[in-house]
Amino acid sequence: MATDQMAAPQAGDDKTMLLVDDDRPFVGRLARAMEQRGFEVRTAETVSEGLAALKTGAPAYAVVDLRLGLGNGLDVIEALRRQRPGARAVVLTGYGNIATAVNAVKLGAIDYLAKPADADEVIAALTRDPEIKAEPPENPMSADRIRWEHIQRIYEMCDRNVSETARRLSMHRRTLQRILAKRAPR
């Protein structure tokens, strides 16, 4: 990638940013990384906190998780677009599909990144010229890793209940237990 795509906004630019994610350690790391790159960061962990933060002032940039504990991050994207049409927002998700990516873009997101995304990937997505296509990732996740990430997400959504997770995934309980006992694939 070209280095100009990875640079933080220039001195005169509005560098306000809202991060909305229910994964507290992740949002904390990303907030610190963005602050080190010159952004003024506010964080929220729920849709209602994100919407409240927008009422105090819509930021120039936003990074929003798609699935939040009590709602959908697309509600924050939509509200941001109404309050500040020129804002640049990126949707992050631990699992993605074409339908939600299209919906995110229709509601105003400029890009859709899979977790775990690092600060440089987020900045590249937020500052990329809309006319320039994103480059494919150098090290994409393997199919096994994507499957493992999906299983972990469903497992967490089911409050770590193996039986319920196995039922939702249409998988035998013992098979799921073996998968959960192994390390994450690369």
UniProtKB/TrEMBL annotation:
SUPFAM superfamilies with a match to the protein in the record: CheY-like
Membrane-crossing residues?
none
Specify the Response regulatory domain's residue ranges: 16-130
User: Is Iron included in the keywords of this UniProt record?
Assistant: no
Identify the GO cellular component terms for this protein: cytosol; protein-DNA complex
**This protein's superkingdom?**
Bacteria
Pfam families (alphabetical): Response_reg
Annotated GO biological processes are: regulation of DNA-templated transcription
List the InterPro entries hit by this protein, alphabetically. Answer: ActR_PrrA_rreg, CheY-like_superfamily, Sig_transdc_resp-reg_receiver, WalR-like
Q: Does the keyword Transmembrane apply?
A: no
One annotated GO molecular function is: transcription cis-regulatory region binding
Residues recorded with modification 4-aspartylphosphate: D65
Q: Which keywords fit this entry according to its UniProt record?
A: DNA-binding, Phosphoprotein, Transcription, Transcription regulation, Two-component regulatory system
Q: Which NCBIfam families match?
A: ActR_PrrA_rreg (NF033791)
Name the chain's protein.
Two-component system response regulator RegA
| Phylogenetic lineage | Bacteria, Pseudomonadati, Pseudomonadota, Alphaproteobacteria, Hyphomicrobiales
